[in-house]
Amino acid sequence: ARKCGRDQVAISIGVIGLGKIAQDQHLPCIAKNSDFKLAAVVSSRPSDLGVPSFKTPAEMLASAKLDAVAICTPPSVRRNIALECLTKGAHLLLEKPPTPTISEFADLKAKASASGKVVFQTWHSRFNKAVAEAKRLLAGQKVTRLHVSWKESVWQWHPGQEWIWEPGGFGVFDPGINALSIVTEIMPEPVFVDSADIITPSNRFTPIAANIKFRAANGGDACLTAEFDWRQKGEQSWNIDIDTASHKLKLTHGGTRLLVDGFETVAAPSEEYEEIYTRFAELIKTGKSEMDGSPLELVADCMMLGRRSDTDPFVW
Ligand code: NAP
After folding, report:
1. For 22-36, how does the pLDDT look when each residue is reduced to its tens digit (9 = 90+)?
2. Which residues does a 6 A CB cutoff place in the pocket of ligand 1?
3. Which one of 108, 149, 189, 312 has the largest count of C-beta atoms within 10 Å of its C-beta?
4. 136 CA to middle of ligand 1, Å?
């Protein structure tokens, strides 16, 4: 094992699923974090990463000596792979969304806790300074208005990914859950789903757009809404407006920038995955797990309460 910065042995990590996010973020962030050393991968594709590559998690877990595993597959297969890894004694980092159902999440949480291993179930959008600052400013405040506008091009961000259109693939809630992970982090009081309009292409199983109304758990008449749309052309928008009696906050660019009453107070580069791996190393050192199902619960509630309608067939 390689020695890391503070003369400790680096955490030997395997990565499962070398798709878009593994290549864009996980592999580069592991490479530049001296607390980790990439030791193996599981992939159906050829790779020249200089580490053994296996066809299945079972083969990797049987052959490679690993301290930790990052699971970067689509959510539908994540729980079974996670349990295989925990059984073999690996700490786990899970991509979002953690599981396709609430009951799988509850089961995984219980098994993670019983395993004695660290399970870090990530929500990458929470790892922004502007999000932390918004949370600080909203603590103890009464929110009068919340509006989420999360509109992006599925063609640009999920090219050719068919799993997003399959049951359990989340559709527009795959990006939308990132917004909900911020909402559940920063709101001073929880919100419930009041109603949802869910729009699905006539030739696909999962939604391409959703309009949601929330209500505050503590009552009141605050106007709390969200719009998710995957058909956005031109400028992409990942914005959250939050008004209180005294201030108007606006998180933009996916939570990397914060404006307060129109003035930019935080504008930090996006280093979500650098922060995630720093946090994972800390959690492993302290033996603590982190799992929070609240964004997943809101998505499930939208699906339970949603009024459904069809729209034009989807074409890549
Ligand atoms: P992706 O490009 O489709 O990659 C997923 C990879 O997982 C595939 O390339 C494949 O790896 C493996 N895989 C696919 N189906 C599998 C199955 N049935 N069993 C085992 N492995 C399977 O998807 P992605 O965009 O990277 O997204 C993966 C996860 O990361 C999703 O939960 C997504 O929400 C999250 N995420 C994505 C982004 C993004 O920008 N795309 C950003 C943040 C988080 P091999 O090709 O190596 O076999």
Report:
1. 999 999 999 999 999
2. 17-22, 43-45, 72-75, 77, 95-96, 124, 157, 161, 163, 174
3. 108
4. 33
